[in-house]
Amino acid sequence: MNTRILIVATSLFLLFLVAPAADASTAIQLDEQSALFTINFAVNDSNFDVAVPLLAKAGIAYQDRVNEVGYTIKTSEEDTSNTITDVAALVLSPNATLNGGRYELQAGNAGQFTLLIIATFSQPLAENYTAMITKLPYWLDGRRTTVHQNELNELDRPLLKTQ
Question: What is the pLDDT of residue 4?
Fold first, then answer.
């Protein structure tokens, strides 16, 4: 199963490199126990160079001081019995330069980004699942800051309907 997930992730990565960024975020069930979630966002600052992290990690709260994008996946029933057993997540960008663990944009350039999450659950998917960004740090001219929680709440939240 991990090989199939890797193939899907690689295919989607190549798709994001050549396709224009979509406005909507998506959720797709890959098999009985796996799903793919994407959350699109943009960064643009005309006065400062901007950097956005490449890596993402589940379970990061807004108050955590980290240099990774945080996200969570929730069920519509808030049931925790179907836990995530394996997850791969990273931020993709077709138009920003990758330097180490960050995407970099020069002042005045808009960046399109997609958080890509592939999650495998312990049981077959039988509920509705939503993914959301919980923390989005970034750097303006090398100074670290973060997107305000109210703005995070305005980002699209992909919904996987399995019922």
Answer: 52
In 3-state terms, the chain is what percent helix, strand and coil (to 5)?
A: 15, 45, 40
For residue 132, give the nearest of 68, 63, 74 by alpha carbon: 74
Evaluate if residue 57 carries a pLDDT over 60: yes
User: Torsions phi, psi of 70, nearest 5?
Assistant: -100, 150
d(CA 28, CA 92): 17
> Rounded to two decimals, what is the model's pTM?
0.81
Task: Write the burial class of residue 50 (CB in 10 Å: 0-12 exposed, 13-18 middle, 19+ buried).
Answer: buried
115: nearest Cα among 41, 30, 17: 41
DSSP-derived letter for residue 69 is E
Is the Cα dihedral 84, 73, 23, 47 positive or negative? Answer: negative
Amino acid in position 26? T
Give the span between the Cα atoms of 61 and 70, in whole angstroms.
Answer: 7
Ramachandran angles phi, psi of 2, nearest 5°:
-65, -35
